[in-house]
Amino acid sequence: MGLPVLADLTVGQEVARGTRTVDRSRLVRYAGASGDFNPIHWNERFAASVGLPGVIAHGMWTMGSAVGVVVDWLGDPGAVLDYQVRFTRPIPVPDPGEAEVEVVATVGALDAEAGTARIDLQVSALGTRVLGKAQVLVRLG
Amino acid sequence: MPVDASYAGRVYPAGPVYEVGREKLAEFAEAVGADHPAYTDPAAAQALGHPDVVAPPTFAVVIAQRAEAQYVRDPAAGVDFSRVVHADERFTHHRPIHAGDRLVTTLHVDSITERAGLAMVTTRAEIAAEDGEAVATVVSTLAVRPEES
Protein backbone atom coordinates (compact mmCIF):
# COMPACT_ATOMS: atom_id res chain seq x y z
CA MET A 1 0.00 0.00 0.00
CA GLY A 2 1.88 3.06 -1.24
CA LEU A 3 1.26 6.78 -1.31
CA PRO A 4 -1.42 8.23 -3.62
CA VAL A 5 -0.04 8.89 -7.11
CA LEU A 6 -0.18 12.13 -9.02
CA ALA A 7 -1.79 10.63 -12.13
CA ASP A 8 -4.89 9.77 -10.09
CA LEU A 9 -5.38 13.32 -8.81
CA THR A 10 -6.89 16.47 -10.28
CA VAL A 11 -7.01 19.98 -8.86
CA GLY A 12 -10.26 20.54 -7.01
CA GLN A 13 -10.80 16.85 -6.29
CA GLU A 14 -11.93 15.98 -2.78
CA VAL A 15 -9.58 13.37 -1.33
CA ALA A 16 -10.77 13.03 2.25
CA ARG A 17 -13.24 14.30 4.80
CA GLY A 18 -13.96 13.65 8.42
CA THR A 19 -15.52 14.89 11.64
CA ARG A 20 -13.68 15.41 14.93
CA THR A 21 -15.27 16.12 18.28
CA VAL A 22 -13.79 18.07 21.14
CA ASP A 23 -14.96 18.39 24.73
CA ARG A 24 -13.39 19.86 27.86
CA SER A 25 -11.60 16.65 28.80
CA ARG A 26 -10.04 16.54 25.33
CA LEU A 27 -8.66 20.05 25.89
CA VAL A 28 -7.17 19.08 29.24
CA ARG A 29 -5.60 16.06 27.58
CA TYR A 30 -4.15 18.21 24.80
CA ALA A 31 -2.85 20.74 27.33
CA GLY A 32 -0.96 17.98 29.10
CA ALA A 33 0.34 16.34 25.94
CA SER A 34 1.44 19.60 24.32
CA GLY A 35 2.56 21.60 27.34
CA ASP A 36 0.23 24.49 26.45
CA PHE A 37 -1.45 25.30 29.77
CA ASN A 38 -2.96 28.66 28.81
CA PRO A 39 -6.04 28.83 31.11
CA ILE A 40 -8.31 30.09 28.29
CA HIS A 41 -8.43 26.41 27.26
CA TRP A 42 -9.63 24.99 30.58
CA ASN A 43 -10.74 27.75 32.96
CA GLU A 44 -14.15 29.34 32.23
CA ARG A 45 -13.63 32.16 34.71
CA PHE A 46 -10.28 33.12 33.21
CA ALA A 47 -11.57 32.86 29.64
CA ALA A 48 -14.47 35.20 30.44
CA SER A 49 -12.13 37.65 32.18
CA VAL A 50 -10.15 38.13 28.95
CA GLY A 51 -13.30 38.70 26.90
CA LEU A 52 -13.86 35.25 25.40
CA PRO A 53 -17.34 33.67 25.17
CA GLY A 54 -16.01 30.82 27.33
CA VAL A 55 -13.36 28.12 27.16
CA ILE A 56 -12.06 27.75 23.61
CA ALA A 57 -10.15 24.92 21.94
CA HIS A 58 -6.41 25.28 21.44
CA GLY A 59 -5.91 26.43 17.85
CA MET A 60 -3.07 23.93 17.82
CA TRP A 61 -5.47 21.13 18.78
CA THR A 62 -7.65 22.03 15.81
CA MET A 63 -4.63 22.19 13.53
CA GLY A 64 -3.24 18.88 14.80
CA SER A 65 -6.57 17.12 14.65
CA ALA A 66 -7.60 18.36 11.18
CA VAL A 67 -4.49 17.05 9.42
CA GLY A 68 -5.38 13.53 10.53
CA VAL A 69 -7.75 13.12 7.59
CA VAL A 70 -4.86 13.84 5.22
CA VAL A 71 -2.50 11.45 7.02
CA ASP A 72 -5.08 8.69 6.87
CA TRP A 73 -5.52 9.28 3.14
CA LEU A 74 -1.73 9.32 2.55
CA GLY A 75 -1.03 6.26 4.65
CA ASP A 76 2.27 7.69 5.95
CA PRO A 77 2.63 10.63 8.38
CA GLY A 78 6.17 11.10 7.05
CA ALA A 79 4.76 12.21 3.69
CA VAL A 80 3.54 15.52 5.17
CA LEU A 81 6.28 17.94 4.12
CA ASP A 82 4.76 21.25 5.17
CA TYR A 83 1.58 22.28 6.95
CA GLN A 84 0.37 25.79 7.63
CA VAL A 85 -2.81 27.39 8.93
CA ARG A 86 -4.25 30.71 9.96
CA PHE A 87 -6.42 30.73 13.05
CA THR A 88 -9.43 32.76 11.97
CA ARG A 89 -12.07 31.93 14.59
CA PRO A 90 -11.92 30.28 17.99
CA ILE A 91 -14.00 27.15 18.70
CA PRO A 92 -15.99 27.54 21.94
CA VAL A 93 -16.19 24.21 23.75
CA PRO A 94 -19.38 23.90 25.83
CA ASP A 95 -19.71 22.24 29.22
CA PRO A 96 -21.54 19.96 29.27
CA GLY A 97 -21.35 18.90 25.65
CA GLU A 98 -18.88 18.95 22.82
CA ALA A 99 -18.06 20.83 19.64
CA GLU A 100 -17.91 19.17 16.22
CA VAL A 101 -15.24 20.05 13.71
CA GLU A 102 -15.74 19.21 10.03
CA VAL A 103 -12.72 18.75 7.78
CA VAL A 104 -12.80 18.54 3.98
CA ALA A 105 -9.54 18.02 2.07
CA THR A 106 -9.23 18.86 -1.61
CA VAL A 107 -6.35 19.02 -4.07
CA GLY A 108 -5.22 22.66 -4.30
CA ALA A 109 -2.26 22.24 -6.63
CA LEU A 110 -0.09 19.52 -8.18
CA ASP A 111 3.63 19.67 -8.90
CA ALA A 112 4.63 16.81 -11.20
CA GLU A 113 8.31 17.74 -11.16
CA ALA A 114 8.56 17.73 -7.35
CA GLY A 115 6.13 14.80 -6.98
CA THR A 116 4.03 16.74 -4.50
CA ALA A 117 0.48 17.95 -4.02
CA ARG A 118 -0.88 20.86 -2.06
CA ILE A 119 -3.94 19.72 -0.17
CA ASP A 120 -6.28 22.48 0.98
CA LEU A 121 -8.33 21.94 4.12
CA GLN A 122 -11.73 23.44 4.82
CA VAL A 123 -12.13 23.26 8.57
CA SER A 124 -15.37 24.45 10.12
CA ALA A 125 -17.32 24.33 13.36
CA LEU A 126 -21.02 25.21 13.62
CA GLY A 127 -20.97 25.97 9.90
CA THR A 128 -18.24 28.61 10.20
CA ARG A 129 -14.68 28.32 8.92
CA VAL A 130 -12.24 28.26 11.85
CA LEU A 131 -8.98 27.93 9.92
CA GLY A 132 -7.87 29.98 6.94
CA LYS A 133 -5.19 29.16 4.36
CA ALA A 134 -4.94 25.64 5.76
CA GLN A 135 -2.54 23.97 3.35
CA VAL A 136 -0.72 20.67 3.54
CA LEU A 137 2.15 19.96 1.16
CA VAL A 138 2.44 16.21 0.69
CA ARG A 139 4.80 13.84 -1.07
CA LEU A 140 3.12 11.54 -3.56
CA GLY A 141 4.05 8.04 -4.65
CA MET B 1 4.06 46.88 29.08
CA PRO B 2 3.74 47.06 25.27
CA VAL B 3 5.53 44.61 22.98
CA ASP B 4 9.14 45.71 22.68
CA ALA B 5 9.88 45.92 18.94
CA SER B 6 13.61 46.02 19.59
CA TYR B 7 13.50 42.22 20.18
CA ALA B 8 13.08 41.68 16.41
CA GLY B 9 16.15 39.98 15.02
CA ARG B 10 17.12 38.36 18.29
CA VAL B 11 18.44 34.82 18.17
CA TYR B 12 18.32 32.51 21.16
CA PRO B 13 20.98 29.83 20.81
CA ALA B 14 20.11 26.15 21.13
CA GLY B 15 19.22 25.12 24.66
CA PRO B 16 19.18 21.63 26.14
CA VAL B 17 18.63 18.55 23.98
CA TYR B 18 15.02 17.36 23.57
CA GLU B 19 14.94 13.59 23.46
CA VAL B 20 11.92 12.29 21.54
CA GLY B 21 10.30 9.36 23.35
CA ARG B 22 7.82 6.77 22.11
CA GLU B 23 5.42 7.35 24.97
CA LYS B 24 5.34 11.12 24.41
CA LEU B 25 4.58 10.64 20.71
CA ALA B 26 1.78 8.22 21.58
CA GLU B 27 0.36 10.64 24.16
CA PHE B 28 0.39 13.54 21.70
CA ALA B 29 -1.15 11.46 18.91
CA GLU B 30 -3.94 10.35 21.23
CA ALA B 31 -4.61 13.95 22.30
CA VAL B 32 -5.20 15.07 18.69
CA GLY B 33 -7.26 11.97 17.94
CA ALA B 34 -4.65 10.54 15.57
CA ASP B 35 -4.69 6.77 15.41
CA HIS B 36 -2.28 5.98 12.58
CA PRO B 37 -0.25 2.93 13.70
CA ALA B 38 3.06 4.59 12.71
CA TYR B 39 2.68 6.80 15.82
CA THR B 40 2.53 3.90 18.25
CA ASP B 41 3.74 0.68 16.62
CA PRO B 42 7.46 0.52 15.75
CA ALA B 43 6.86 -2.34 13.28
CA ALA B 44 4.23 -0.31 11.40
CA ALA B 45 6.59 2.68 11.26
CA GLN B 46 9.47 0.52 10.06
CA ALA B 47 7.28 -0.97 7.34
CA LEU B 48 7.01 2.60 5.98
CA GLY B 49 10.80 3.02 6.10
CA HIS B 50 11.07 4.94 9.38
CA PRO B 51 13.64 3.89 11.99
CA ASP B 52 11.10 4.06 14.84
CA VAL B 53 7.62 5.44 15.56
CA VAL B 54 7.16 8.88 13.99
CA ALA B 55 5.75 12.16 15.24
CA PRO B 56 2.36 13.52 14.11
CA PRO B 57 2.74 16.53 11.76
CA THR B 58 2.24 19.14 14.50
CA PHE B 59 4.21 17.43 17.29
CA ALA B 60 7.16 19.77 16.72
CA VAL B 61 5.12 22.47 18.49
CA VAL B 62 6.04 20.76 21.76
CA ILE B 63 9.71 21.31 21.03
CA ALA B 64 9.31 24.75 19.46
CA GLN B 65 7.26 25.99 22.41
CA ARG B 66 10.12 25.33 24.82
CA ALA B 67 12.39 27.48 22.72
CA GLU B 68 9.71 30.18 22.31
CA ALA B 69 9.35 30.34 26.10
CA GLN B 70 12.78 31.94 26.35
CA TYR B 71 11.36 34.91 24.49
CA VAL B 72 7.67 35.09 25.43
CA ARG B 73 8.28 34.54 29.14
CA ASP B 74 10.77 37.41 29.28
CA PRO B 75 8.64 40.12 31.01
CA ALA B 76 10.60 42.85 29.25
CA ALA B 77 9.51 41.48 25.84
CA GLY B 78 5.93 42.58 26.65
CA VAL B 79 4.19 39.47 25.26
CA ASP B 80 1.48 39.31 27.94
CA PHE B 81 -0.35 36.01 27.53
CA SER B 82 -3.69 37.37 28.69
CA ARG B 83 -3.66 39.57 25.58
CA VAL B 84 -2.31 37.09 23.05
CA VAL B 85 -4.14 35.32 20.23
CA HIS B 86 -2.41 32.71 18.08
CA ALA B 87 -2.59 34.08 14.53
CA ASP B 88 -0.86 31.46 12.41
CA GLU B 89 1.46 28.49 12.49
CA ARG B 90 3.56 26.63 9.96
CA PHE B 91 5.59 23.44 10.12
CA THR B 92 8.16 22.61 7.49
CA HIS B 93 9.51 19.10 7.88
CA HIS B 94 12.98 18.57 6.44
CA ARG B 95 12.59 14.95 7.51
CA PRO B 96 10.14 13.14 9.81
CA ILE B 97 10.80 13.31 13.56
CA HIS B 98 10.98 9.87 15.14
CA ALA B 99 11.44 8.36 18.58
CA GLY B 100 15.07 8.38 19.61
CA ASP B 101 15.79 11.73 17.96
CA ARG B 102 17.91 14.07 20.07
CA LEU B 103 16.99 17.57 18.93
CA VAL B 104 18.24 21.07 19.59
CA THR B 105 16.35 24.25 18.76
CA THR B 106 17.50 27.72 17.87
CA LEU B 107 14.87 30.43 18.19
CA HIS B 108 14.73 33.47 15.94
CA VAL B 109 12.45 36.46 16.56
CA ASP B 110 11.87 37.14 12.88
CA SER B 111 9.63 40.19 13.04
CA ILE B 112 7.54 42.41 15.27
CA THR B 113 5.13 44.58 13.30
CA GLU B 114 1.86 46.39 13.80
CA ARG B 115 -1.35 45.34 12.02
CA ALA B 116 -4.73 46.95 12.80
CA GLY B 117 -3.61 48.04 16.24
CA LEU B 118 -2.24 44.60 17.12
CA ALA B 119 1.43 43.76 17.61
CA MET B 120 2.21 40.81 15.30
CA VAL B 121 5.12 38.79 16.62
CA THR B 122 6.64 36.11 14.40
CA THR B 123 9.11 33.58 15.75
CA ARG B 124 10.94 30.79 13.93
CA ALA B 125 12.21 27.71 15.70
CA GLU B 126 14.90 25.84 13.77
CA ILE B 127 14.94 22.28 15.06
CA ALA B 128 18.01 20.22 14.24
CA ALA B 129 19.67 16.96 15.17
CA GLU B 130 22.70 17.24 17.45
CA ASP B 131 25.00 16.87 14.43
CA GLY B 132 23.38 19.91 12.81
CA GLU B 133 21.08 18.08 10.33
CA ALA B 134 17.99 20.28 9.79
CA VAL B 135 14.85 18.46 10.99
CA ALA B 136 11.98 20.96 11.17
CA THR B 137 11.22 24.66 10.97
CA VAL B 138 8.29 25.98 13.03
CA VAL B 139 7.06 29.51 12.30
CA SER B 140 4.51 30.95 14.68
CA THR B 141 2.78 34.32 14.70
CA LEU B 142 1.09 35.76 17.77
CA ALA B 143 -1.21 38.78 17.76
CA VAL B 144 -0.93 40.82 20.95
CA ARG B 145 -3.74 43.24 21.84
CA PRO B 146 -2.73 46.58 23.28
CA GLU B 147 -3.28 47.12 26.99
CA GLU B 148 -6.65 48.59 27.93
CA SER B 149 -6.20 52.22 28.78
Could you explain how this protein is built, in words?
The complex is a heterodimer of chains A (141) and B (149). Chain A is α+β, with helices and mostly antiparallel strands and 141 residues long. Chain A has a domain at 6-22 and 59-139: Thiol Ester Dehydrase, Chain A (Roll), CATH 3.10.129.10. Chain A is 23% helix and 36% strand. Chain A is elongated. The N and C termini of chain A lie close together (10 Å). By secondary structure, chain B is of the alpha+beta class. Chain B has a single domain (5-20, 56-144), classed as Thiol Ester Dehydrase, Chain A, CATH 3.10.129.10. Chain B has helices at 22-31, 42-47, 60-72; strands at 11-12, 18-19, 84-93, 102-115, 118-129, 134-144. In chain B, strands 1, 2, 3, 4, 5 and 6 form a six-stranded antiparallel β-sheet that branches. Chains A and B meet through helix 1, helix 3, helix 4 and strand 2 of A and helix 1, helix 3 and strand 3 of B.
Keywords:
heterodimer; A: 141 residues; Thiol Ester Dehydrase, Chain A; 6-stranded antiparallel sheet; elongated; B: 149 residues; alpha+beta; 6 strands
